[in-house]
Design a protein that fits this description.
This protein is mainly α. The protein has helices at residues 5-8, 11-27, 41-55, 64-71, 78-94, 99-111, 113-116. The longest helix has 17 residues, at 11-27. It is globular, with a radius of gyration of 14 Å.
């Protein structure tokens, strides 16, 4: 049975490092850092690790309903979502993921934009 992308890159340990670096960058982004002012980052990193693991074929699952429910109160706009997605792409590149794998994760995240960005 072929390995998933999640397994090829080292599982939760590596995905957590990627996610931790991603949030370090997000917290340095003036347009994005405000979304995390009163957030318990350790808990958020745990959830995001599972979410990214899911995008990589790992053993986690978040439904679109869940994504919509947890993001609804944040009022995330399209431009901020795109900036976040670009930072994620850059972070994945810096961890030397193969381009096809980066593209797959990016596409999977982008497919979930309607559930993360605030409806107007």
């Amino acid at each position: 049975m072929p390995q998933s992308m999640f397994e090829r890159y080292g599982g939760f340990a590596v995905v957590r490092k990627i996610v931790s670096e991603f949030y370090d960058r997000i917290l340095d982004a003036p347009n994005l850092q405000g979304y995390f002012a009163n957030v318990e980052m350790r808990l958020l990193i745990d959830h995001q690790t599972k979410f990214i693991a899911q995008m990589m074929g790992g053993p986690a699952s978040y439904t679109n309903d869940t994504l919509q429910r947890v993001h609804a109160h944040l009022g995330i706009g399209h431009a901020d979502f795109l900036e976040m997605a670009d930072i994620l792409r850059e972070t994945l590149e810096d961890f030397d993921l193969q381009q096809a794998d980066i593209d797959l994760v990016y596409r999977e995240v982008m497919r979930r934009e309607p559930y993360i960005v605030a409806r107007r």
